[in-house]
């Protein structure tokens, strides 16, 4: 059911019956290491390119989630996937491996939450018994495509972020045990005129706030309804801006209740600049760490806001500013 | 409701209350010229780049469809859009202009049908009163990104296709007059090992056939149920292969009932190689020509199969074969 202008409320509360997070060597040294199902010490996973390695991460996340659900890949009815690589090739090639009906999506780093929202919609409206959501990012593949190959040693400002290497996946179903998807708020594109691709957190913060406010308004809920509110990859710079904007708009969220997956991901002493980013940031933090905390009973109701910067290297070269988007999902145990 | 393994049947039969097709100079000389709402004699539309021109085509298609529906842009509840350009920037930037909740999709040249399927799902399941679908492609932008800039004058084989310059859009709603979306069949990724990016029709034909067969099987319908069956952009080479595969699999469709939007688009004497392609191919042919024929009473029931080649220049350079997908929508007047 649509409530308000942009929030889908799922009456049947589709269940996330399993989820998985796969990470790379930098994530293995991070804060959330124990919440990953598998951590690789090699960025290549035995492949010939970083893009193929990213596909492998994604396939492993999907396989692991399917296995944890006690299912086989042919039991999956629909697969939603998207990623940052041109023409979402890791997603499309993982869909070839899975060989199930596939819907490609693109919401930049918000893709996991866009996919989770569509999967919940599909299951809630009885158009499927289950659906799989998966997404990935790879630090070296993203650097090569969006910035410079890492080997060039280009200098970065402290507002830059570190693309998470890894993948997250989740199986959403009508029946089963686990955290439930209660509602999704689909974001509008917000562009405040920022154009610095080394400061995406600042660009995305207004989109995150716009979607959070829409969510609270549509559902008539105070922010205090949630035990934790986590944005996707605003990281330190964007997180502070989002906090300031919320305060300015009269939305009070206690500091300890508002966090960001990009801040959670790495230790302070890791050279991750302002924090983590990439499709795998919100995906691994949510499908690993946050859902684990819900399953352990530490959190009952959370709101996750996937944030995406919808730029491309070409739109930047053509002097465009950065359109941003954020989608939110409300989960409850 | 899910019927069979991969077909969504829309009980409420969401209505396409309006649609629009915008084209460029080459399309103006084509077979379907009279079915375009607007034809431009300039590839640039006054913009500084082909990518920005593509965005303009898409915005015009959306504006025209919205206007024809007697609506304003703020009446649109959700917008689905995807295109071929890296990180789907024409779609994302058009979503910034529209400023309504946005879901980015990617199914290469099948995107219009993926979007139409998701829009129908959303409306049928009462999660929206209406949704807008839009997609675009631009010949010069696609050549530059996928092959060589046109100015290089690179030679092409006759199996190559001509990317349609233009955009198509449609408004899907619960109530109103117009052709109705009866069912959608979501395709699996099919890859028969072909790797020639100058012969995408051949690569995509098996995916089109797989989805058509799934559609007939899931709904227990013979192909003769439809007045016309149109694939998206198999063009002459792929169309012949699809016909042969269907015959081999025992599916009989009379020649005059099986067509392809890439063949319909241009005149035989236009230098379009094997025919049209690109996201705008199936989008403009369907949202313009085919829906017009339905509205005129010439066609009552049609099946449109959007076909997409999920390769990227990088996957080709990395010696990968071409994964393909096809999604089908059944429309009835």
TrEMBL record, chains A, B:
It holds the Pfam family SpoVAD. Coiled coil: none annotated. This is Spore v ad: stage v sporulation protein ad. GO terms for molecular function: acyltransferase activity. It comes from Lucifera butyrica.
């Amino acid at each position: 059911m649509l409530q308000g202008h942009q929030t889908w409320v799922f009456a049947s509360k589709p269940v996330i019956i399993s989820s998985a997070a796969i990470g790379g060597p930098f994530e293995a040294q991070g804060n959330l290491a124990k919440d990953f199902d598998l951590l690789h010490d090699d960025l290549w996973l035995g492949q010939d390119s970083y893009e193929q390695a990213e596909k492998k991460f994604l396939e492993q996340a999907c396989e692991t989630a399917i296995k944890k659900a006690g299912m086989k890949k042919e039991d999956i009815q629909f697969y939603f996937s998207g990623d940052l690589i041109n023409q979402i090739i890791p997603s499309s090639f993982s869909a070839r491996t899975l060989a199930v009906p596939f819907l490609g999506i693109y919401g930049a780093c918000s893709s996991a939450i866009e996919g989770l929202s569509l999967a919940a919609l599909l299951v809630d409206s009885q158009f499927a018994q289950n659906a799989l959501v998966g997404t990935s990012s790879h630090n070296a593949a993203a650097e090569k495509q969006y910035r410079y190959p890492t080997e060039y040693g280009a200098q970065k400002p402290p507002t830059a972020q570190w693309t998470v290497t890894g993948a997250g996946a989740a199986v959403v179903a009508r029946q089963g045990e686990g955290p439930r998807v209660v509602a999704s708020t689909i974001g509008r594109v917000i562009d405040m005129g920022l154009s610095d691709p080394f400061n995406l957190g600042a660009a995305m913060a207004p989109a995150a706030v716009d979607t959070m406010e829409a969510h609270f308004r549509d559902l008539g809920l105070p922010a205090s309804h949630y035990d934790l509110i986590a944005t996707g990859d605003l990281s330190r710079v964007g997180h502070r801006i989002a906090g300031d904007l919320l305060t300015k708009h009269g939305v009070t969220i206690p500091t300890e209740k508002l966090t960001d997956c990009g801040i959670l991901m790495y230790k302070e002493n890791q050279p991750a600049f302002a924090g983590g980013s990439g499709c795998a940031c919100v995906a691994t933090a949510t499908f690993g760490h946050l859902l684990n905390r819900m399953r352990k009973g530490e959190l009952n109701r959370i709101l996750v806001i996937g944030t995406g910067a919808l730029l491309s290297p070409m739109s930047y070269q053509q002097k465009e500013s950065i359109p941003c988007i954020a989608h939110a999902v409300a989960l409850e145990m």
